[in-house]
C-alpha cells in the first residue's frame, strides 16, 4: 500500500507521466539523504530542485491545461501522485509546487488569453508561480484587502498595497494578485491581476518563516496594471479566489500521506532493530498496537485521498460532491497525518529528535498542513453545510469509477459561482457500509453512524446551539467520520484491500467516534438528551487477536523495506 522508491513503477499512468514521476524519484534518490537533510537544516533555497523541474518540464507538463497546450494536461490523478512523492522527500519541495498550482488557478479560470499564453510560456521556461491573496492584517479573508487599484485614466490601474505569506513570492514569474478598486465599493470592486516579481515596483520585504521554503511578504508601490494584466473583476474575482482554493486545498492530503510514509519506514525499521531490556522494541504489546494503529490510519488516509480524486475528475455543474470531499481531505486527512506521526513518535521517542533522520523534519512539517488553506475549524464549519443533504436526502448518481485515464480536468477551471453548497446532493452513504456489513468493525461503526442520524432527528441542535461554534464543531467531527468511512470503503472495494486492514481501520474509527461522543457529552451547552445519547453511543471496537497479528505482520515487513540512499 505504501510508496516505496525501491520498487516504484507507476504503471497506471501513460508513458510520459511514468517517465517524469520516475525521473523525480531518481533525482531525489541520487541526490541522497545527506543533501536532503543538510539543505533542510541550513534552510537552503531549493534551486537545484527547480533546475531539475525546469530541465524535465515537470511543472509545465503537469500544470498546463490541454486548452493552453495540446501536448499537456491538468490531470488530478497524476498531480496527486506527484504531491505524494514530493511530500515523501520534503515539505519544501511540495510547497513550491503547491503554490504554483494556486498561482495558476486564477489564470486558467480567466478568459484573458494573453495572460494564459504568458503563463504557459513561463511554465515551459521553468518558472514557478505565486498566489497573492492573503495579507498580514486580514489573513485570507477575501472580503477585506488593502491592495488598492487606482484607475490610471488609460484603462489600467496602479496597484499599491501589501501581501503576506505568499509562497514563491521571491522568484515567481507570475503572481496572481487579489485587490480592490479605489473607485468602486462592494464586491464589484474586486480585481485579480497578474504581476511579475521581477518588476521594479514589486518590493520583496522578507521571508516570513524560518524554513527552507520562501514564504514572502511583498509590497506593490504604484505597480502598473495594464488592462491586459487583469484576470477577473467583480464577483468573478471573488469566485476565482474560492475556486482556486478548491483546487489547491486538495493537494495537502497527499503531501501528508507522503510525509507519513517516509517517516513510517524510518520508525518501524528503528524500532524493530532496537533491543531494550533484552527484548526487541517491537515485541512490546503497546508498541505493536501503536505502530499497527499508525499503519491502519495511514492506509485510510491514502484510500480516502485516492477516492476523492475520482470525484474531482468526474465533477460537473450537476455533480459537485467534490466540494464536500475537498475540505475533508484538507481537514481530516491532514489531522490524521498528525496522529500517525505522534503514534510513531511515542515508539521511537528520542530518535525522533535526531538531526540525521527524516522523522525529525516530518514531525515539524506535518503540523503545517492542517493549518494551510484554512484552519481545521474553518473546514469543519464548511463541512457542516453539507450534512443535511448528505445524511437525509440522497440522490441518484451513476457510479463513479476509478479515474486514472489520461484526461484533462477542465471543469476545475470553470466551476462557476462559489455558492449554493447547501443544495448539493449526494448518493446514499449507506450503500458503501451495507456492502461491507460482514466486517465486524464496519458494522459496529455503522451502529454509531445510524445513531448519529437518530440524534439529529430527535434532538437536533437548537437555534442557540447552532450559533455556538464550539458545540457545532464536535457535531462536525462526528459527521466527518461518517463521510471519511464511506470513501475509505469505496476505495477498499475498488482496490481489493485486505479485509483485515479494513477491519483495523474501522477499529480506529469506532474509537474516534467514541472519543468525539465523549467530548460532546462534556460540552456545557449539550442538553441532557444529547449528553445521554453521547454516552449511549460510546462503543468498544470488536477485538480480534488473530486479525491484529496478521496486520502487524504487514507492519513488521516495513522494517528495512526502504532506506534513502546516503
TrEMBL record:
Short name of one Pfam family: Acyl-CoA_dh_1
Domain Acyl-CoA dehydrogenase/oxidase C-terminal: 238-386
Keyword Cell membrane: no
Keyword Zinc appears in the UniProt entry: no
Keywords on record: FAD, Flavoprotein
InterPro entries assigned: Acyl-CoA_Oxase/DH_mid-dom_sf, AcylCo_DH-like_C, AcylCo_DH/oxidase_C, AcylCoA_DH/oxidase_NM_dom_sf
PANTHER family: ACYL-COA DEHYDROGENASE (PTHR43884), ACYL-COA DEHYDROGENASE FADE4-RELATED (PTHR43884:SF19)
Entry's family note: Belongs to the acyl-CoA dehydrogenase family.
Name listed for the protein in its UniProt record: Acyl-CoA dehydrogenase family protein
Record organism: Kitasatospora cinereorecta
Lineage: Bacteria, Bacillati, Actinomycetota, Actinomycetes, Kitasatosporales
Amino acid at each position: 500500500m505504501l510508496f516505496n522508491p525501491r520498487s516504484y513503477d507507476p504503471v497506471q499512468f501513460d508513458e510520459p507521466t511514468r517517465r517524469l514521476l520516475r525521473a523525480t524519484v531518481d533525482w531525489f534518490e541520487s541526490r541522497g539523504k545527506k543533501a536532503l537533510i543538510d539543505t533542510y537544516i541550513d534552510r537552503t533555497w531549493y534551486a537545484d530542485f527547480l533546475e531539475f523541474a525546469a530541465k524535465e518540464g515537470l511543472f509545465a507538463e503537469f500544470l498546463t491545461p490541454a486548452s493552453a497546450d495540446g501536448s499537456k494536461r491538468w490531470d488530478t490523478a497524476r498531480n496527486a501522485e506527484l504531491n505524494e512523492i514530493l511530500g515523501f522527500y520534503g515539505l519544501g519541495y511540495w510547497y513550491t509546487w503547491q503554490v504554483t498550482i494556486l498561482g495558476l488557478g486564477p489564470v486558467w479560470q480567466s478568459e484573458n488569453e494573453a495572460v494564459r499564453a504568458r503563463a504557459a510560456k513561463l511554465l515551459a521556461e521553468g518558472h514557478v508561480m505565486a498566489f497573492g491573496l492573503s495579507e498580514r492584517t486580514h489573513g485570507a479573508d477575501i472580503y477585506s484587502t488593502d491592495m488598492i487599484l487606482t484607475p490610471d485614466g488609460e484603462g489600467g490601474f496602479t496597484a499599491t498595497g501589501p501581501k503576506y505569506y505568499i509562497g514563491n513570492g521571491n522568484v515567481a514569474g507570475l503572481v496572481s494578485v487579489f485587490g480592490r478598486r479605489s473607485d468602486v465599493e462592494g464586491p464589484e470592486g474586486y480585481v485579480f491581476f497578474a504581476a511579475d516579481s521581477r518588476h521594479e515596483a514589486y518590493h520583496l520585504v522578507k521571508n516570513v518563516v524560518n524554513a527552507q521554503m520562501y514564504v514572502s511578504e511583498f509590497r506593490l508601490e504604484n505597480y502598473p496594471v495594464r488592462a491586459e494584466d487583469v484576470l477577473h473583476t467583480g464577483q468573478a474575482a471573488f469566485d476565482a479566489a474560492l475556486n482556486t482554493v478548491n483546487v489547491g486545498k486538495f493537494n495537502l492530503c497527499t503531501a501528508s500521506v507522503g510525509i507519513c510514509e517516509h517517516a513510517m519506514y524510518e520508525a518501524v525499521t528503528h524500532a524493530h532493530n532496537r533491543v531494550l531490556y533484552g527484548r526487541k522494541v517491537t515485541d512490546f504489546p503497546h508498541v505493536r498496537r501503536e505502530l499497527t494503529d499508525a499503519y491502519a490510519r495511514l492506509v485510510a488516509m491514502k484510500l480516502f485521498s485516492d477516492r476523492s480524486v475520482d470525484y474531482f475528475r468526474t465533477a460537473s455543474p450537476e455533480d459537485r460532491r467534490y466540494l464536500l470531499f475537498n475540505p475533508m481531505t484538507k481537514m481530516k486527512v491532514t489531522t490524521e497525518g498528525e496522529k500517525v506521526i505522534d503514534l510513531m513518535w511515542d515508539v521511537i521517542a528520542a530518535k525522533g529528535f535526531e538531526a540525521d533522520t527524516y522523522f525529525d523534519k516530518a514531525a515539524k512539517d506535518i503540523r503545517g498542513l492542517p493549518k494551510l488553506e484554512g484552519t481545521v475549524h474553518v473546514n469543519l464549519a464548511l463541512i457542516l453545510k453539507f450534512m443535511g443533504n448528505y445524511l437525509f436526502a440522497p440522490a441518484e448518481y451513476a457510479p463513479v469509477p476509478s479515474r486514472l485515464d489520461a484526461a484533462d480536468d477542465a471543469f476545475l477551471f470553470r466551476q462557476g459561482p462559489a455558492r449554493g453548497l447547501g443544495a448539493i446532493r449526494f448518493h446514499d452513504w449507506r450503500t458503501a457500509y451495507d456492502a461491507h456489513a460482514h466486517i465486524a468493525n464496519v458494522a459496529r461503526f455503522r451502529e454509531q453512524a445510524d445513531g448519529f442520524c437518530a440524534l439529529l432527528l430527535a434532538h437536533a441542535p437548537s437555534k442557540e446551539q447552532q450559533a455556538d461554534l464550539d458545540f457545532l464543531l464536535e457535531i462536525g467531527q462526528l459527521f466527518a467520520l461518517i463521510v471519511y468511512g464511506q470513501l475509505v470503503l469505496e476505495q477498499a472495494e475498488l482496490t481489493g484491500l485486505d479485509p483485515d486492514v479494513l477491519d483495523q481501520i474501522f477499529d480506529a474509527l469506532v474509537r474516534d467516534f467514541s472519543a468525539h461522543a465523549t467530548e460532546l457529552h462534556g460540552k456545557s451547552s449539550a442538553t441532557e438528551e444529547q449528553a445521554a445519547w453521547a454516552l449511549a453511543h460510546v462503543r468498544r471496537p470488536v477485538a480480534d487477536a488473530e486479525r491484529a497479528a496478521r496486520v502487524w505482520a504487514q507492519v513488521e515487513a516495513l522494517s528495512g523495506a526502504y532506506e534513502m540512499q546516503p
